[in-house]
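Quick start: read one record
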Amino acid sequence: MLAADKLSFESFRNEVLNDFYVACLSREASLLGRKEVLTGKAKFGIFGDGKEVVQVALAKFFQPGDFRSGYYRDQTWMFASGVGTIQQFFAQLYADSNQDHDPFSAGRQMVGHYVTANTDENGEWKNLTAQKNVAAEIIQQIFIKNKWGNSWRNGIYNFHHYHSNTHEVLGVATGEARVCFGGEQGEVLALAAGDVAILPAGTGHKCEWASDDFLVVGAYPEGRDYDICRGDPAEHDRAVARIAGVPLPKKDPVFGGDGVVVWQAR
């Protein structure tokens, strides 16, 4: 290292103080955000308190051209990387539909879901080597573009369940898994990064096994809310009635209006 490249004491002190400020800011955002959710003033939220120091450190190695496959709790990383601000964080928490306030999803996604655009306002590819990118959010952005919202990032439950009030799309961002589709007598299929599973309302699914890095982006047509049904006989008749009333999606979640998925009313 050249002498001119060495960090001066003043620069080191300022860097440490800024890191401490970002960590404290993120911790307070988590505490306040959780309070707002639990008192009914904001929608669903999962926060990143307890992970501030490691994420400040990660941000120092996150460079333009890199891709991040993130999770709900990565707000400190995004604050420290300059990808997101505290104002945008709370705009997303309160579902602010003004895209100037929440540029990631205009209030359509759960808090902590960051999106970096791959194309400009003319639909041309941006120079991804010149910006910090987020991998899971690329899948999410595609779903949002095609009007599939209310998305989340997580794994798949390890018990049989289905949604009676909406269709669902699952896009695998990282890792691999074996998932049973169709209930207890269904078929187990292997999923890996890049795969997309589209589940009509009422389709049972359960994760039988997953790698440690398995991460899925889920979304619903028109951002519909979703229930979780587990096959209780007492709920069967009501669930069947709800399934019959679920409207057909207006667009394919991946390919839009010209997609390969053809939905037909039965």
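Residues 150-244 form a domain with the Jelly Rolls fold (CATH 2.60.120.10).
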